[in-house]
Amino acid sequence: MKEVRRTTLPVVEMAKSNEEFRQVLWTGDHTQLVLMAIPEGGEIGGEVHEGHDQLLYFVSGEGEATIGETKVPVKAGDVSIVPSGTFHNFRNTGNGMFKLYTTYCPPEHAPGNEHETKQEADAAE
Fold first, then answer.
1. What is the number of alpha carbons within 13 Å of residue 46 lying toward its C-beta?
2. How far is 13 from 113, CA to CA, in rounded Å?
3. What is the mean pLDDT of residues 78-87?
4. Residue 2 has pLDDT above 70, yes or no
């Protein structure tokens, strides 16, 4: 899917139907919207974004959020907030895909970036 230019999107439905590990949906000057799908037993991978706040909105499945020293279960309807400079990781602990959309402020990934799998995303970075 090419990056969209519309300003109103059915993002929950788009996130639920997304099957790619990472899909950059929209990039502005100060914010970015990204869809993610994490397979059973998979994870985003531990990371720290310097200079980028991140919010993650979970739409289906179950997982575990590690933010700093805190680990908590997360599920559809939950939001995780990751301040700039904070270690974080998100794991799929349920059955089926763990799906979410996330915002980066400012943008983190190249506009239109798509990675079908975590391995593909890791290789590109």
1. 6
2. 20
3. 97
4. no
